[in-house]
Structure formats: C-alpha cells, structure tokens
Amino acid sequence: MYYSTYGKPSKVSNPLMDKMVIFAADFLEIDETIEIDFEDHEDGTCGFCDYDLEEGITIGINPELSRTEICKTLFHEMVHAKQYIRGELISGVGKAPSRWLGKEVTGAYMDLPWEREAYDTEAAMWSIFSNEILKKPLK
Ligand SMILES: [Zn+2]
After folding, report:
1. What Cα–Cα distance (Å) separates residue 50 from each residue in 71, 81, 124?
2. Does domain 3-134 have CATH number 3.40.390?
C-alpha cells in the first residue's frame, strides 16, 4: 500500500510513521492509498476519516496530540477507513442517517456500532503495537 502525509509534526519520525501505517494496514487488510493530513482541529477532535470514491481515503489527525495519542487516533481512523472500503459503513449525506451493514443507524456517539468497533479495535491494535513492535515506549 502507499500513503502520503501533509504537515507531519517532527516529533513523529518517518520510521515511526511507516511502522504505524504498515502495521495498521496489515492488521486491517487495507491495500488502498491513504492520505494523512495533520491539521489543527479547532473543535478539539482528535481526527476524522473521509472516504470518497474518486479521492480515496483521507485521514485527518490533530498534530497537537502526543505521539501515543497520534498513534491511537491513526489506528482508530484506519478502522473507519476499513469500514468504508468494505462498505460496512456508509456516511449519511446531509441529515440522512449513516448506514451500518445495510441498516440506518442513529444514536449517541459512543453507542454507534462503527465507533464501538473503532474503539475496541484501536485498543487491541495499540496493545499489540506498543508491546510487540515498538522497542521503547512513546512519550
Ligand atoms: Zn470514530
């Protein structure tokens, strides 16, 4: 797979970025090209994932986060990328509800099935990545 970054903060080295993206792509079996934009989020969110048939996957990450949080946020958004690529999640346009596995779903953020999967998978990925791939802890 191929990825590009924009605005990557210097605290995230190129080798670390490679390790994070390659691990996540392998874990989630993603082969699509991904653009990762580090940009400030004035609303305080950590990240987002957009999927467009023509533009592909764009992941946004708040560069102010710590390296550990950047890594976890990347894993979380990569889970959403996987959900979009496989058609499990289809974002609602305008006020239309999003669809999950073919059904319209609304509810509180933390109850949304794609968020539950993203948080659960992010935690599992972080556990493996931090214990088995990183040689020393991130600060
Ligand atoms: Zn999410």
Report:
1. 18, 8, 23
2. yes
State the Cα–Cα distance between residues 24 and 78, nearest whole angstrom: 7
The answer on pLDDT for 135 being more than 90 is: no
Domain boundaries, the chain: 3-134
How many angstroms does the Cα of residue 94 sit away from the middle of ligand 1? 18
The pLDDT tens digits of the residues spanning 48-82 come to 999 988 889 999 999 999 999 999 999 999 999 99
- Spatial CA neighbour of 54 closest among 73, 80, 79, 35: 35
Nearest to 39 by CA among 58, 53, 14: 58
User: How many angstroms separate the alpha carbon of residue 137 from the centre of ligand 1?
Assistant: 24
Å from CA of 80 to ligand 1 middle: 7
pTM for this prediction: 0.94
